[in-house]
Amino acid sequence: MVSEITPMCICGGCGRAIEKKFVFCPWCGQSKLAKNSSVSEEERMEQIFNRLEEMQINNRFERLEKMENQLDQLERELDALVLCSEMHK
């Protein structure tokens, strides 16, 4: 069964993919109709890519922080296990 493909575009406000039929971005609320003529298409794309890069960096830091917390928890559990093993010798 072939599904219908929804035409998409990129929001100029947040850089997320949205359906072309939307007038406002569902995530950031920016209107597709209000275009800033003082900003070139190249500058808009640069802003979008900069925002995407920032989001990726933040995501990496969040994942690293989560992994660090998991490693700390594992280290505490391992220390308890070693202590328990030494006590039973």
Describe the structure.
With about 90 residues, this protein is mainly alpha-helical. It has 1 helix and 2 strands. The chain has one helix at about 40-85; strands at about 10, 15-20. A two-stranded antiparallel sheet has the order 1-2.
Strand neighbour order, sheet with most strands: 1-2
What structural class do you assign from the helix and strand content? mainly alpha
- Structure summary, number of beta strands: 2
Q: Estimate the mean pLDDT confidence.
A: 84
Count of DSSP H/I helices: 1
Radius of gyration, taken over Cα atoms and rounded to an integer in Å: 24 Å
User: Stretches where pLDDT falls below 50 for ≥5 residues?
Assistant: none
How much helical structure, as a percent, in the residues?
A: 40-55%
Task: Spell the H/E element sequence.
Answer: EEH
What is the overall shape? elongated
Report the major sheet.
Answer: 2 strands, antiparallel
N- and C-termini, Cα separation: 66 Å
* Share of residues in strands: 5-15%
Itemize the secondary structure elements and their pairings.
Elements: E1 8-10, E2 17-19, H1 41-87
Antiparallel strand pairs: 1-2
Annotation keywords:
mainly alpha; about 90 residues; elongated; 1 helix
Give a summary of the structure in a few sentences.
With 89 residues, the protein is mainly alpha-helical. Helix content is 53%, strand content 7%. The protein has one helix at residues 41-87; strands spanning 8-10, 17-19.
